[in-house]
Amino acid sequence: MIVLAAFSQSLHSAINADNEVSPAKIEAEAQKLAAQWNGESLQSAIVLFLRAGDEFKKLGNFQAAAQSLRRTARLQDIVNEREKALATAKRAVELNPKLSHLDAIKNLTLYVRYLIANGEPAKAQKILNKARELAAAANDPAADGYVFRSAAEIYESKGEFAEAEASHVKAVEMFRQRDDEKVLANALMSLAGTRIATGKYILGLENADEAKGLFLESGEPRNINRAKVIRGHLLNMLGRKQEALDEYLEAEKMFPVDIDGVEKARLQNGIGYVYQELGELGLALSKRREAFQLFDKVGYRPGVQITLPLLIDLSFKLGDESAAFEYLRTSEGLAAQDKYYPGLAASHSFVGDHYFRMKENDLAISYYRRALPVFQRAKLPLAAANIHDKLGSVLVRLGENSQARKQFERSLSINREIHNRQGETNTLYNLAGLELKEGRLAEALKLSQASVDGTEKLSAEVRNTRLRSSHFASVSERYELLIRLLMMAAEKNPDPKLVEKALQAAERSRARSMLEKLSMLEASVTADAPPDILAAEKELLISYNAASDRLANLVDSAASRKEIDDTDRDIREIEQRIEQLRATAKITSPVYSGIKDPSSLNVEDLRRDVIKDDSLVLEYWLGREKSYLWVVDNNGLSAHALPGRQEIEGRIASIRDLIAANETRVGETVEAYQERIASSEKNYRTQARELSKVLLGPAGERIKNKRIIIVADGALHSLPFSAIPLPDTKTDEPLLNTNEVIYQPSAQTLLLLAKIETRENENRRDLIVFSDPVFSSDDERLTGVNIAASQKQSDGDKFRLVESLRSLTRLRGSEREADLIIQTVGSSADRFEGFAASRDAFLGSDLSGYKILHIATHARADTERPDLSGIVFSRFAEKGELINEMVRLQDIYSLRLNCDLVVLSACETAVGKDLKGEGVLSLNNAFLQAGSKTVLSSLWKVEDEAARTLMTNFYRGITDDRLTPSESLKRAQTSLMQEPRFRSPFYWAAFTVHGKVDVRPHIAGSRSTLSFSLKAFAVALLVVGLACVAYRRRKNNLAAD
After folding, report:
1. Pairing mode of beta strands 934-938, 991-995
2. Contact by Cβ (8 Å): 200, 234
3. 559-580 pLDDT, tens per residue?
4. What CATH number corresponds to the domain at position 937?
5. pTM above 0.70, yes or no
6. Does residue 381 form part of some domain?
7. Residues 894, 541: contact at Cβ < 8 Å?
8. Is residue 668 included in any domain, yes or no?
9. What pairs with residue 920 in β-bridges?
């Protein structure tokens, strides 16, 4: 090896020069190599330690020889050569007759450790007994300390953790009497690890902190890293997820690639725990598998036994039953071989969870009751508390409420005793549900509020935005129960404060990330982030986009499930690294330290700062059993019960289908089309009236002639409210005729947007346009070959929704729309088209220096994998080389806009995945998060002539009457609807405005110039509709052929 060769000449000289000192020099060089903590250096150190041991033995220095062998064994363990480590430890034991009692005990206890790891606990016990005999004769605290620590390791191997903890405590007491800080630090680490199992997390954290301090003094990177991992585990158990993740990720950076498999596996299990607790099950499974493979590779059976139950749990939750039961069989086999049962008990617990989810209650109870006594005998309080909580949930389902209460109360008592806040909040939620079932509303409300308060505290400690979002999505039922209880209390005892509290709870469960991002943008957190963090984020975003492109191509080409899943996992891991960097930026930002979680929504603030005489807010919240509507206007706040989520979302889906029925179908005759449309319109009128009564009826007369600000939930995000009629009206005229509609992610967001002023920038230009990118290698701008005029016209009307990056065609219409816009705005506009309309140009531009951002290109909306949603820019550079073309959600979130308006001139840009706690992960919401005041986008594909008429009138309203986007959209849609052929909402209801209520873009120039400019702008947006229909017709024709 290279490192060994570097020392060979000097060592050879030393050995030849002085046989008596040469082994010491060899050992000293080996220790220097060992301190470097990388695979090559450690392998070289092993060779030198073995050589030194042999030389010491020849000289009759058996104490030094034994020490060299122990050091060799430890290094062999670190480089994943566990069998060699066991053999080397045995060689050291063979020297015992020639050693002092203390050295012999060191050899024996090291041998015990590797016997345990090798699955030989009985033999380990016999060796420990020999060590005990020697310690009794040694009269040395250190000798007793080694024996106590070794005894603790055997107790742990048998699942007797209380006894293990007691022995570790005694070992620490003994080592404190000797002046050996390294040995003491290792003993403290062992004690801290055991206290994870016994639930004494605070004491364990104190032990780990002391150990870390000792290791820092001695400057040992490996042991410092081990201390970080143990601290991470303990912080995890204390519910301090973000701090735990910080420790883990710092440790992960330090770990060498090819060594220390056991410690690395423990680290991966810890990271997996954080991800699982915060709802990222796919990432958690990836980490658990990595841990299992590392433990298995080095033959560390205790680690394998601990990880198997975790794999069982995640496999069940991710729907892979066959894998889960295969892991269970492996767990049962190992338990039988090793006589170690806590691991199997954990496996049984997770199988019980599976049967609970399947509503096979008897099987669930059976598996839980198999696990509980094992955990109790092993004195594993966290595991026992979880089983008590689970048993309580099954018993509630079976109607055995008194027995369920006993289980919940026992779980709550244990969780509070061991400071397990995650478990405590869950049990409080379960107890609240039991109290409600038994009719004790006040007690249920008290417990539910405590559960949500605890959840808020836990989440507040997580800086990683993605993990926080995942966590809220995984505990949304806690907010649902609290809202339901508050509304029940308000119905029983009318109290405006209870109604407001229910609205506040609903607000706390939505648009969390957007609210935080807008607060950070206003406070300029990103602006004062350290340059190294910003540079690292940029590099990660490059990797993220490359992986996302790879995944998109795999999905488009129907690649294997494994390829898709592996790439999807890579993307999620990169996302986590990006979010962790952003979390780090928050720590280092002096501005962020002054930003607190937003206070609860204040209805009076909303009424004073946002709601005018002509406005009201309709905020919806969809629950499993009941949904609710809150109405806020100048007259106050009221709340109303609605049907459950399933009924409302079913009605919306039906309405959407009836609207979409206006699309032509392949091979359909005119007569059949007309008959189908007549039927669907009749059904639409009936269903729209019914839906209006459900959604708008409770608001009554208050909604008439008002600007309606919709805070939607679930499928309501995809409902064009302007298309349904007023409730209890004698006609079927839509709400559009009397009301302006604008959508908001949350009332808190609405309030914050109202307070945020456009950042002062005297040099802010009117417009920046990105259009007509180069998508394909046969584009005439690359080939130099002119395309026929007919083909140019056809290409100009392509549909702007990506189905595959490989089949994108040129959007000539976007070139024409940019021409019209630039001619009007003139010197206060910048244009990027063709090769210049690239991802790098977009992300590299100072977009905060513009009032309007116009993007005319293809877009991809993916409701299953929102990570793949994005905007497509040029795929080729001028010389023909492929370049990165996609700007995805992560890129948009990183922008810092100062726009009054973003126009997404592509189809379905208001479509995305609905995530509990956040809302729709769509392109339009991403631009709102990035700082745009309003965004104009569409819900579906639009007919071309209808789009032309609507957009022309839309921009006339903005130019001639200085209307806001929502005011102008209402006027344009009303005008279009009055034409008989366009009365169906299919033609006019797709367009929506999201964001600030009263924003008005102020374009430089005269009124007449502005009018002409915006009319040109209308033609630009018209291309969306033209492109959509052309694509649809082309696709239908292909299908017909």
Report:
1. antiparallel
2. no
3. 777 777 778 777 777 777 777 7
4. 3.40.50
5. yes
6. no
7. yes
8. no
9. 914
